[in-house]
Amino acid sequence: MINDGILEKKIYSELPPKVEYSLTEKGKGLVEVLWKLNDWGEKEF
């Protein structure tokens, strides 16, 4: 997802090592779609 521009990875050079992941603007655009998929998946057929 990092290579697709959906997530951003920030590495801190400290001990113990620390890495943070966050959504890019492109990734934030997927949030609504993912909630819709979640709602669909929870329906009983």
What is the element layout, followed by pairings?
Layout: E1 7-12, E2 18-23, H1 25-28, H2 31-42
Provide keyphrases for this structure:
single chain, 45 residues, two-stranded antiparallel ribbon, 2 strands, 36% helix, 27% strand
Structure, briefly:
This protein is of the alpha+beta class and 45 residues long. The protein is 36% helix and 27% strand. It contains 2 helices and 2 strands, in the order ββαα.
How would you characterize this protein structure?
The chain has 45 residues and is of the alpha+beta class. 36% of the residues lie in helices and 27% in strands. It is built from 2 helices and 2 strands, in the order ββαα. A two-stranded antiparallel sheet has the order 1-2. The radius of gyration is 15 Å and the shape is elongated. The mean pLDDT is 95.
